[in-house]
C-alpha cells in the first residue's frame, strides 16, 4: 500500500506541476496540444516499443486499449468544450467527480463492490468537489454542466478499461505505452477539431520550450503511475486519491497566487475533499 501511495503522490505532484505551467501560457496557444505532442515525441517511441515487446497480448487488452483511446479523446474534447462556457474552477471539479460512476460501473459490469468506508469516502470526496465548483460564479453553468458531466462519464469508462488492461502490462514501459496509444488518439482528435475551427493544424502560437518539455514529460508519466497503482487498488479509489491534486492547486491559488475571491469557501471545500480521502484510506491503516 505504501508504494501505491508514493506512486499516487508523485503522480499528483506531476499533474499539479504541469497545470501550474499551463497558467503561464495563453489559452489560444492550446498548451495541452503541445504537451501531448511533446509526450509523443519524447517518450512515445520508447513507450510504444516496450508496449509491443513486454505486454501479454490478448483480446481483452486490445479492447481495453480501444475503449481507453476513445474515452480519453471524448474526455479531452468534452473538457475543452466545457471551458468555452465556464472557467476551470467550475468545470474541472465536476469532471473529477467520476469515482462515483467508476464504483457503479464496476459493481454493475464486474460485480466488484467496495467497503462502507470506501463508499463514504468517495461520497464525501465528490460532495467536496461539487462544493468547490459552486464557489465559482463566472461562466455559463447551464451550458458547461453537460460537457463537464460528459468528461466525468468518459473518465469513468477509461478508468475501468485501464483497470482491465493493467493485468496484461507487466512493466512501467508497457504501461506508459498503453497511455501513449490513448494520447495519440486524443492528439489526433484535438488536431482535427482545431483544423475545423481555424483551418490550422497547429495552434496559433507556441509556448516556450521551458513550459512544453516538462509538460510533455509529466502529462504521460503521471497518468501511467495512476494506471500502475490499479494493480493494487480499485479504480474508483485510485481516481479519488488523485483528487488530492485539486486540494493542492486550491491551496496554491489562495496562498501563492493570492486569488482571494471566495477563498474561505474554497478552502472549506478543499478540507471536505481531504476528509473524503482520509476516510477512504481508513481501511488500509
Write the layout of secondary structure elements.
Elements (H helix, E strand, L loop, with lengths): L1 H21 L8 H12 L1 H11 L4 H25 L4 H8 L3 H12 L5 H18 L7 H25 L6 H27 L10 H21 L5 H7 L2 H12 L7 H19 L4
Helix pairs in contact: 1-10, 1-12, 2-9, 2-10, 3-9, 4-8, 4-9, 5-7, 5-8, 6-8, 6-11, 7-13, 9-10, 12-13
Describe this structure in words.
With 285 residues, the protein is mainly alpha-helical. The protein has one domain (2-284). Helices cover 76% and strands 0% of the residues. The protein has 13 helices and no strands. The protein has helices spanning 2-22, 31-42, 44-54, 59-83, 88-95, 99-110, 116-133, 141-165, 172-198, 209-229, 235-241, 244-255, 263-281. It is globular, with a radius of gyration of 18 Å. The mean pLDDT is 89.
Q: Any low-confidence stretches, pLDDT <50, length ≥5?
A: none
Our estimate of the beta-strand percent is: under 5%
Tally of contiguous helical segments = 13
Q: Which quaternary structure do these chains form?
A: single chain
Total domain units: 1
Average pLDDT number: 89
N- to C-terminal distance: 9 Å
Q: What is the element string, with H for helices and E for strands? A: HHHHHHHHHHHHH
For the secondary structure, the number of strands is 0
Brief overview, please?
By secondary structure, this protein is an all-alpha fold. It is built from 13 helices and no strands.
Amino acid at each position: 500500500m505504501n508504494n501505491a501511495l508514493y506512486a499516487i503522490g508523485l503522480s499528483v505532484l506531476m499533474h499539479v506541476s504541469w497545470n501550474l505551467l499551463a497558467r503561464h501560457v495563453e489559452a489560444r496557444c492550446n498548451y495541452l496540444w503541445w504537451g501531448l505532442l511533446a509526450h509523443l515525441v519524447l517518450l512515445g517511441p520508447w513507450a510504444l516499443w516496450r508496449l509491443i515487446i513486454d505486454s501479454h497480448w490478448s483480446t481483452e487488452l486490445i479492447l481495453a486499449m480501444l475503449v481507453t483511446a476513445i474515452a480519453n479523446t471524448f474526455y479531452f474534447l468534452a473538457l475543452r468544450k466545457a471551458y468555452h462556457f465556464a472557467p476551470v474552477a467550475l468545470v474541472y471539479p465536476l469532471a473529477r467527480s467520476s469515482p462515483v460512476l467508476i464504483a457503479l460501473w464496476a459493481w454493475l459490469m464486474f460485480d466488484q463492490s467496495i467497503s462502507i468506508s470506501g463508499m463514504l469516502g468517495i461520497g464525501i470526496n465528490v460532495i467536496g468537489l461539487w462544493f468547490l465548483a459552486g464557489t465559482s460564479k463566472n461562466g455559463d453553468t447551464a451550458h458547461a454542466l453537460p460537457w463537464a458531466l460528459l468528461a466525468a462519464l468518459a473518465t469513468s469508462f477509461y478508468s475501468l478499461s485501464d483497470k482491465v488492461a493493467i493485468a496484461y502490462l507487466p512493466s512501467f514501459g508497457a504501461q506508459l505505452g498503453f497511455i501513449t496509444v490513448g494520447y495519440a488518439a486524443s492528439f489526433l482528435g484535438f488536431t482535427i477539431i482545431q483544423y475545423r475551427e481555424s483551418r490550422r493544424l497547429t495552434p496559433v502560437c507556441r509556448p516556450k520550450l521551458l513550459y512544453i518539455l516538462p509538460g510533455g514529460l509529466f502529462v504521460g508519466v503521471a497518468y501511467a503511475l495512476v494506471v500502475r497503482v490499479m494493480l493494487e487498488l480499485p479504480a474508483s479509489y485510485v481516481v479519488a486519491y488523485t483528487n488530492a491534486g485539486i486540494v493542492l492547486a486550491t491551496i496554491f491559488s489562495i496562498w501563492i497566487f493570492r486569488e482571494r475571491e471566495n477563498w474561505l469557501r474554497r478552502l472549506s471545500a478543499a478540507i471536505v475533499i481531504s476528509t473524503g480521502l482520509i476516510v477512504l484510506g481508513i481501511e488500509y491503516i
